[in-house]
Amino acid sequence: MPTKAKQNNLVRGFVPYPETPGEEYMSENMRAHFTNILNKWKQELMEEVDRTVHHMQDEAANFPDPADRASQEEEFSLELRARDRERKLIKKIDETLQLIEENEYGWCDSCGVEIGIRRLEARPTATLCIDCKTLAEIKEKQIGS
What we know:
The protein has two domains: 81 residues, DksA, coiled-coil domain (Four Helix Bundle (Hemerythrin (Met), subunit A)); 40 residues, no CATH class. It is mainly α. The chain is 68% helix and 0% strand.
């Protein structure tokens, strides 16, 4: 069974960045690598939005049976919720692309250390290093319980 990071790689179909010894973190080549990943991901999300619109237009029917009508409305509602999450993700991708443009991408918002290439490949919109993210999740669990 592939790890979550490998599943993400398969979904977005990119080759992991080949680091070279002594290469500066977030070099121009690394930034280009992540720009390509993010743009491809955004394009896939936009295509999914288009498919949903066409699906809803094609499948919209006025069913005489209330149960059939309710089933269709529930299906459309689920699709629209998924697209809303994707819309928010597209916004986050755009923000991340802006960070790359400003050479601010790849460092933890909390402690300032390098987030790391493999973490960013697994979660290109990550803004926290693994330690800060883990700590934030622990705090969230403590507050939530």
